[in-house]
Design goal:
alpha/beta; five-stranded parallel beta sheet; 41% helix
């Protein structure tokens, strides 16, 4: 049997590991009882360490395992609750990604994508239209059973900036996260015609009927027929009844548009004009053709 030498020191008895005082490590303030705090102290410390990773973050690169999610621990009605919440940088990123999708799907003319009022020459002939557009961009709301939806009908001679102003309004709405569909009326009607062969008519028309903000550019430029009248009336009637904002541009004022859409003295144009008057503020833009300068 091996023996210890006289020079060897006796081994120290094993000691139990010291309990970690997690309560003393807690940094936050929680409106819970001492018992509840003590019982959950270890978990609180763990979550506070995760929270500390976000300190000084400017959103360049997330330090959390679950991207842009902040661990939250708080006392509610005397009990501790733990959950995750998206941080401001995550919300900003989501808003930017949504805006990109909105701009991509909006069909705003490429030449006007990103346009703002800084690129618009405001004068006495268009300031009323600009004011009305700003009200819609800022969330104008009308109340009452028969109140108009916040729509806009912009009319005036060609080349006076109607499409540009409508595009600027569409861009402003999308920057606020609003869904927009911008349709040139002649192109939109041609798209419906093509959809009959492809059996996609419902998808084409439903997008225009239900989108949050619909822009109909250059109404009255299309060749008129009973079919055109029915398509436009059905669309505008639905949006008026559902109180969905519709912004329309035209070279014609409302009475002239009614005549244009009723070449055979029918009532189709009058029905459409009635819906426009019932759902839109009518404003005029005057002046010379910008494109000819």
């Amino acid at each position: 049997m091996p023996r210890s030498s006289a020079s060897e020191k006796p081994e120290k008895p094993l000691e139990a590991p010291k309990a970690i005082d997690y309560v003393s490590q807690i940094r936050g303030q929680y409106e819970v009882s001492t018992e509840e705090l003590t019982r959950n102290a270890e978990a609180i410390v763990s979550w506070e360490k995760l929270q500390a990773k976000c300190k000084g973050c400017r959103g360049e690169k997330c330090r959390q395992r679950d991207e842009y999610m902040i661990p939250i621990v708080e006392g509610v009605n005397g009990q501790l609750h733990q959950y995750f919440q998206r941080c401001k940088w995550g919300r900003k990123k989501m808003a930017e990604e949504r805006a990109k999708r909105l701009f991509k799907n909006s069909k705003v003319p490429e030449i006007y994508k990103g346009a703002t009022l800084y690129q618009y020459r405001i004068n006495q002939r268009n300031e009323q239209a600009v004011k009305a557009a700003k009200e819609i961009a800022h969330g104008k709301v009308t109340e009452g059973l028969f109140a108009k939806p916040p729509g806009l009908y912009i009319h005036g001679p060609r080349g006076t900036g109607k499409t540009l102003l409508a595009s600027i309004l569409a861009n402003a709405l999308m920057r606020e996260g609003k869904a927009v569909l911008f349709e040139s009326v002649p192109d939109f009607l041609n798209e419906i015609r093509r959809s009959y062969k492809e059996h996609t008519t419902e998808a084409v028309t439903e997008a225009a009927r239900t989108v949050e903000y619909l822009f109909l550019d250059d109404i009255g430029a299309e060749r008129t027929s009973a079919w055109v009248e029915e398509q436009l009336f059905s669309l505008l009637n639905h949006r008026m009844n559902e109180r969905l904002p519709t912004i329309i541009t035209s070279n014609y004022d409302v009475p002239d548009l009614a005549d244009k859409l009723s070449p055979d003295d029918g009532e189709g144009g009058l029905r459409i004009a009635s819906r426009i008057s019932g759902m839109c503020e009518v404003v005029e833009i005057g002046g010379e053709d910008w494109r000819m300068k």
